[in-house]
Specification:
Strand order of the largest sheet: 7-6-5-8-9
Largest sheet: 5 strands, parallel
Shape: globular
Radius of gyration: 19 Å
Bound molecules: N-carbamoyl-L-aspartate
Strand content: 5-15%
Structural class: alpha/beta
Number of strands: 9
Number of helices: 10
Distance between the termini: 16 Å
Mean pLDDT: 97
């Protein structure tokens, strides 16, 4: 990704948001596959809604581990080399970190990574950056804190690296209450790209004029027996009193429901809570992205 490309994508997304009809049925006759080996609500529905809006046909497997030939022992490579004969682009989510690379290596059509393992979720990072730009006017100079599960959470990892490599004057914090934060490699990468980075143990150690808190869910399903899931500090109305009027809360969602929730429901009424605006942006950014890819 180049910054120029990113800015063009965001401009196109602004135009689409202002005039939804502009992309309506623009890709009629094209076919896009969505193949998801892991659960998904926002990512899959927004991609499939985007494909529908563009007038393209969607062929889909939502539990591909059970319903595709993966169940019969087929490799990603063989599945992709079959599907690429039927469709114009493939959107794929898979539990292995290298799955998107493996697919892209053999595919005759574009592969769009809708989340691979615990490391990459590039289209989520796109809609997250688009949302930050919407909220702050620009991303250069932003002060962003990442909370929740920074060990296995692919959204925070991808976004932190993307912002650090693409924008200038970035300040980043990792909220790490018990020595389980971003991986050393991620921190080194962020710093090498020129972002300033520090770890804190609690929300109250963050500056009051912070721009964004990017909260995430404990990725319970990614820890095998015996591995401890990092403790996630919850955001509630009391935590929010520490911050100013323009400290926005983002979350890729889903969040955990109820008492164990990493963002208590009461925060939803706070005007600084932006996670549903963020998920709405998923449709806008993905429609624009698919359109751009099919246009090529
Ligand atoms: C995230 C994911 O799948 O990584 N969800 C999403 O795409 N919005 C976050 C998560 O599952 O915690």
């Amino acid at each position: 990704m180049e910054r120029e490309w990113l800015e063009e994508l965001f401009n196109r997304t602004d135009n689409f948001a202002a005039n939804k009809k502009s992309l309506l049925n623009k890709q009629q006759g094209k076919i896009v596959a969505t193949i998801f080996y892991e659960p998904s609500t926002r990512t899959r529905f927004s991609f499939e809604a985007a494909i529908g809006h563009l007038g393209a046909t969607n062929v889909s497997s939502e539990a591909a581990g059970a319903f595709s030939s993966a169940k019969k022992g087929e490799s990603i490579e063989d599945t992709i080399q079959t599907m690429d004969g039927y469709v114009d682009a493939i959107v794929m989510r898979h539990g292995d970190d290298d799955s998107a690379h493996r697919a892209a290596k053999v595919s005759a059509v574009p592969i769009i990574n809708a989340g691979s393992g615990s490391t990459h979720h590039p289209t989520q990072a796109l809609l997250d950056m688009y949302t930050i730009q919407q909220l702050l006017g620009q991303i250069d100079g932003a002060k962003i804190a990442f909370g929740g599960d920074l060990v296995m959470g692919r959204t925070a990892n991808t976004l932190a690296k993307a912002i650090a490599s693409m924008y200038k004057g970035i300040t980043m914090y990792g909220i790490n209450p018990e020595g389980k934060g971003f991986d050393e490699d991620v921190i080194n990468y962020i710093k090498k790209q020129g972002a300033w980075f520090r770890e804190v143990e609690d929300f109250r150690q963050l500056p009051k004029d912070l721009d964004i808190i990017y909260q995430t869910r404990p990725q319970e399903e990614r820890y095998t027996d015996g591995q401890a899931v990092p403790r996630v500090l919850a955001i509630n109305n009391d935590v929010m009193t520490h911050f100013g009027d323009s400290t926005y809360i983002m979350h890729p969602l889903p969040r955990v429901e109820g008492e164990r929730s990493e963002i208590h429901k009461e925060v939803d009424c706070d005007p600084r809570a932006k996670y549903f605006q963020q998920s709405n942006n998923g449709f806008l950014v993905r429609t624009t992205l698919i359109d751009q890819i099919l246009e090529r």
